[in-house]
Input
Amino acid sequence: MYVHFILYVKNQEASAKFYRSVLALDPVLDVPGMTEFQLNESSVLGLMPETGIKKLLGPSLPDPEEAQGIPRAEIYLVLSNANACYDRALANGAKSLSEFAMRDWGQQVAYCLDLDGHVVAFAEREKSESGND
Output
């Protein structure tokens, strides 16, 4: 399975700059209407302007602009450099929700809000876990 996770954003350029810095990745696609970051071999994070999805799906879609700043999604990233990513998020305008702490499920995790109010979690990868960061 190949998965695209797409966040609707107010300002594609600002959000792309934010995630470029936070993830320390260049987008694999950056055109008007969509920016994509390859997270691993089967997962992509996409950023689409709120106005773009509204044009695409029309009036049957509730207007995403009306939910501006209300958390409606979470990106949970498990990384070997989670602290550095979290710090970069805060340096690029994210709002801290919870500093790194050991959670009930056994991971060190910090939480913040991105520029559009999406929750971003940074979980520290265990040394025994494999995968791409």
About this structure: The helical segments are 12-23, 50-57, 82-91.
